[in-house]
Every structure is written in C-alpha cells, then in structure tokens.
Amino acid sequence: MSKTNISLPSSLSLLFLLLVAVSAVRPPLACDPRDSKSKDFAFCKASLPVAERVRDLIGRLTLQEKVKLLVNNAAAVPRLGMRGYEWWSEALHGVSNVGPGTKFGGAFPGATSFPQVISTAASFNSSLWEQIGRVVSDEARAMYNGGMAGLTFWSPNVNIFRDPRWGRGQETPGEDPMLVGNYAANYVRGLQGNDGERLKVAACCKHYTAYDLDNWRGVDRFHFNARVSKQDIKDTFEIPFRECVLGGKVASVMCSYNQVNGIPTCADPKLLKGTIRGGWRLNGYIVSDCDSVGVFFENQHYTSKPEEAVAAAIKAGLDLDCGPFLAIHTEDAIKRGILREADVDGALVNTVAVQMRLGMFDGEPSAHRYGSLGPRDVCSLAHQELALEAARQGIVLLKNRGPSLPLSPRRHRTVAVIGPNSDVTVTMIGNYAGVACGYTTPLQGIGRYTKTIHQQGCKDVACTTDHLFGAAIDAAREADATVLVMGLDQSIEAEFRDRAGLLLPGRQQELLSRVSKASKGPTILVLMSGGPVDVSFAKNDPRIGAIVWAGYPGQAGGAAIADVLFGTHNPGGKLPMTWYPQDYLTKLPMTTMDMRSNPSKGYPGRTYRFYNGPIVYPFGYGISYSNFVHTITDAPTVVAVPLHGHRQGLNTTASTTTASKSIRVTHAKCNKLSIGLRVNVKNAGSRDGSHTLLVFSTPPGGHWAPHKQLVAFEKVHVAAGAQQRVHVNIHVCKYLSVVDRSGIRRIPMGQHSLHIGDIRHAISLQAAALGVIKS
Asked: Rounded to an integer, what distance in angstroms lies between the CA atom of residue 115 and that of residue 724?
C-alpha cells in the first residue's frame, strides 16, 4: 500500500453538493447579486468591456483604498462590496500551499503533486507540459470554488539553470533558453486556458531577470548585483520571459530581488516599462518578488527614503508588491510630490483587469464557466495517472552496461533496496510543493515486482557515518540484484541554499562502492536530485551496471522508477542540463554571469552552448532499451533570406577567427521564413518506446556565436521494428540567429550545420531580394 494516501470521503458527491450549497450563501469577491448596490455599479456588469469596468471601479476608490490594493493581501472595500484578496498562491508542479493564498484541509486534503519541473522538462514533451497545466488549473479552480485558494498563481519559474550549484535550479526547465521558453509557453497555456481574454487562472513567469544565485559564499540574492552584458541579456536571460509573454500570453511577470548592472530589477524602467510592457506588450500585471521593494531600500540602499523606493518601483512599471511596503509608504510618496495618484491608478488598471478576466467581479463563482469544479476534480484517478506518466517520461537512463537493465521478476526474485532516498516520500516532490494525494516510494514500487530486502545504508543524504553500511552490504550479498537510491534532497539544494559542490554528499560514494563490490547480482544506481551530480566514479566503475536519474519524480515517483527498472516503461528522458565534473567549479564563481568562455582568464564558460570542456554527461543525453536510428529524407541545402525593401542588410563582423556576414533580424522578412525537415526515426530494438528528436544548429564560425544551440525537438512513439516520419519546422529568424556583442540579433549568412543524433546536414543561408528555398 502506498504511503499516506489521502482517502476522500465515500460520500463525496453528497459533500460536493453541500459545498455548492454553502457557496451559494458565501459572498463572492465582489458584485454579490444579493447586494442591492451592486446592480448600480458598472464594474459589476460582465457584459461591458473589461477596460470600461476597470475605469468605473478605480474611479470610485479613494486614495486610501487604492494604496491598500497595491499589495498581495489586498484589503477589502466594504462600501463597494469588495472582499479582501490574497494574490500569492503557487502552482509550480501542482497546487502548493507555499503562498498564503492556498490552504489544504476539509474537502481538499491534498492535490496532485507532479514531478519537479526539472524532471518534467527531461521528457521534452511540450504537449505533456500543457496537459499538466490544465490539470493543475482544474484543481486550482476547484479549490478556489471551495474557498481554499486564489486564482493568481506565481508560477512557473523560467530562469536559466546557469550554474549547477544553484539550489533553485530544480524549479526550472533547465539550461537551454529555447527549451525553457517552450516549457513556459506550454505550461502557461495549460494553466490559463483557451477562452480568449478570459482566464482560468492567472499564471506568472518569474524571476525577471538574471536571477540564479540564492546564497553562495556570503553573497545572497538580496544584495547581489548581476553584471550582465547586453549580449547575454538578449541571447540567454530574456528569451524564456519573451516567449512566456509573447507565446504563452502570460498574465503576470515577477521581477527579482537582485540588481542587474546596478539597478534593482523592480525599479528598472527599461526592464519593466520598456521591455515587458512596451516591447512585449504584456497584457497583465508586474509583481515584485516578496519584499523586493523593501529589500532594495533596506538591504541595497538604492534610495535614501522609503517613499523614494515606492516612487522608483511604481514609476518603473511595478503594479503589485508582494509585501506591505507599498501599502505603508505610497500615500506619503504622493504627499511629497514624487509620485502621482495617476501612477497608482495605472498600476491598479493592470491588476484589476486581470481579476476581471478571471471572473472575480462576475458574482457567484458557481455561475462561472469553471464553477462546477469541486473536490471530485482534485486528486482524481486520471490526474494521479498523469502524475505517474509524467514521472515515467522524465526518468533518464544514463548508463546500462551489459545491459544490466531491465530487471526481471523471474531472474531477480529478491532485490536489495538501499540508500537514504530508498523509502522517501516528500523528498520526491521537491520544493514549492503542496500536500500530495499520496506517495509510492521506490521501495514500495520495486516491491510490486519482486521481494525486497531494505536497508538504508545512510540515515539521510548527509551520510555522515558508516554505522549502517554493514547491514546494507549483507543485503547486497544476499539479493539477486541491488538498487541503491541515492542523491540529494532539500537539505542540500533549495531556495536560499546553493550547493557547495557537485559530488554526492558525505559518505554516499563510499557506501555505493562498498555495496557494489559485495553485490551478488547487478548493481543499479538511482539518483534523486534537482541539479547535476558528478558520478564519474560510478560511470567508470564496471561493477555498477546502470545509472538512472529520476530527478524529483513527484508523488508517484517510486512506481515510475520501478516501471523503468523492470522494463514496463522504456525510458526516453533526456538531460535538460549538462552534468559537469567537480573540477569545473575551480575557476567559476557563481557571481560571474558571463555565459561565454574567456580562455585568457581560464574562465570555462557556461552551459553546453558555450562550454566545451570535460563533462560527465552532456545536455540532451539519455539512452533507451531500444536503439533509434535517424535518417533525413528531405531538407533544403540553400535558403534565401528575403530583406525588407531595398536594404542590403549585410554586416561584416570581424571575430578572432573569421569574418562573417550577417543580417539584422529586423531587416529580414521573418514572418513565414522557416526550414522544413523530414526525418525518419526507426526503432531498431525489440521494445516499443518513445524517442526525443533533438535538432541542434552550429552557426558559421565567430567568437561570439554558440558552439551549438537547440533549434527544435519532437517527441515520437515508435513501435519495435517500426519507423515514424517526423516533420520539423525551424523558424530561421528565431532559431538560426545569434546575438552580437552589442545585443543585436543577427542571422549569420553562410553554412549552418544541423545536428540530429550522429547525422549532420549543412544548410547555406544567403541574402536575397526574394525568399526562395532551394533543394
């Protein structure tokens, strides 16, 4: 039986009807039809345009009422029939109770807890990401209808996993900007729904921008000034947020604690008003990370007076403060004449409009499109099955010598299950999680297939002593196979806890080596972690037959791990980040933001796009129980890039190695300029399986261009011995462009090399007056 399964009441339908009845007398956020005054308010008339309703509401508010709406725990306005509202809820990989806007209990004892984002990203399955978003928003709406949650969820985290030590890297979709942006847009679409301007819930992409350090060697996120080049801003850090706003139509963006080039992000008008609101046309609100305005006043000393901090933030484009700072000091800023009431109105226009789009001023929640969602829609069997499938798809097989996997219940009648993570529950859901519906631990999952002998070996991941080693070694000697579930947890990597190094903590490596020497059968290493782990010793040890990375696999993680180990599921995950050796950190301060290498200083560069040194496992790596073979059947060799008007558009850019011609993206006719590829994927193995087709591009040479970059990926299921044709479209301006040192995006002319597995295909881009694609 799974651990701590939540059993919903058997009289669930009766309970739901009761809740609906209760909601009929529970007042809505605003515009209660039982309030005779509400019928006179234009802002309560759902038939009117949102902009008109927003103007009407703001026009009725006093200044004192307005400033109390600028913070996450927005105050009630009783004379207008408005209740208070808590803006802060979280839904990173399931409805969470991290924020005060959501709580569990009563008819909602828990919610479906999906794998941590880094694990789900390893599936490289964009339709899965959107599907998870739809399920999470179903459960969020159900809890809102039951009075247990809000409708504004400050998720996802779309920062780049720039440094492998970052404690919050687990929350992100990985190190590649294209991958992170794709995840962001799909998850947001799932959360927010597809009802035009109407929102199912309001998502939020965070933390803008260049935020990926929490607490490293005395430098913390509250004091850090990220010095970032224009090139890296445009080429790396902005891409996921841009895609989130333009592709996902997200309803909110959160600015971060840190400064960027000396200016707090929440007080930088170029970032907030200029880029998010102006350049990308955000249809929504901008919120601070919690207490960020207070942080840049009190910790960073960016202004000398609190009213000046308020004025700087609101004038820069901040609409909502997570924290009390704006509610306390905004009125004084207006009295001093450094802020106008009209500036406050502008902020409220953006927040109230989102509430209107959520239906929060439309009267009874039960009358809304999603008003019928209730307890039966949370932790449903279908939702829990999706959590299991997501966990399966995110598991990455890193090594399989022999092969040692899959195990067989017939041949491996007893399995020793060892390690500090072998029987864990909450470890599997990572951080920013809620209360899971229930858990299946690795020990329980393996126990469904065969008899188990369980020994922890280490009492926790710190593994400070060898007191439990002896029993673990004895178990390995007795069993037909040994599975060690090792790795990290939130005591090692978490918010405000960056890692000291990349090795397994404490004496875990010693335990693994001693057990593998004693093991009668194959030894399998299963790793739980958010960040990469230097397991070079295990990779190179012939006694360790297989290595599996499970990430933090969610509430059903143990079942998914067992399904992979015993071959019920054929693993198809790929690493969304590079796994580096410990030595990589030698000349790599977390505080140095540069993405590109600097050989003269011994600086190695960051991520697979710019680092070209020794690795443990590369970005995009993952093997299967099948062998997939790629063949390009159709692809152009020359592509003409049409230009606007009579522009020549060419720029000769000298680098240290070559002189290459390029075209500014703004000078090219980009709209329908894409390259189509047809690739056959053959499963040459004996097992059905899903395969991720990763397409990389290496642009023409130049010091500032990436070594290669991901330009497309597709997930395809192929039966054993069968073949599937995959159609891949690559948008030239978006994915075959690079950013120069001035932060200008350009399309390099000349030969681009596409990489799909072991095969290469060259495409020559040429400037032309007309867009012609030649075979």
From this structure: 29
